[in-house]
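The protein record filed here.
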Amino acid sequence: MKVFKNKKASHNYFFLQELEAGVVLKGTEIKSIRLGKVNFKDSYARIIDGEMWLFSLHIGHYEQASFFNHEPERKRKLLLHRREIRKLQSKIEERGLTLIPRKLYINDDGRVKITLGLAKGKHLYDKRNSLQKKDQMRDMERRLKE
């Protein structure tokens, strides 16, 4: 099972909740994902007319495809139950949160799944604090090894 992680997301956001969704893809997109041509930079999910959509997820072109290749940064539909979408929409509207992709992976059945996080943006001082804590933990682990 291949897993692609959005490493910048935990640096830029506080995550309150996670959920898993399926992704509607074209044939050349799944082939590109299997080759590892995925980039999460600035990607996010949004609810439009009761449907969940993923924006700005870059899936590179498949080299062996002819003129039937996909557009790399097109919007992609996410598969969730209506109940889940309604719950998320109420949380997003009331608290000012956003949906950020954290992981993209191909499960054992060959289907592409994405893990979304309900997130709140970090301020600059929060980012500094988290980096400082990370450095302190790294120093402590080095000392314990010695």
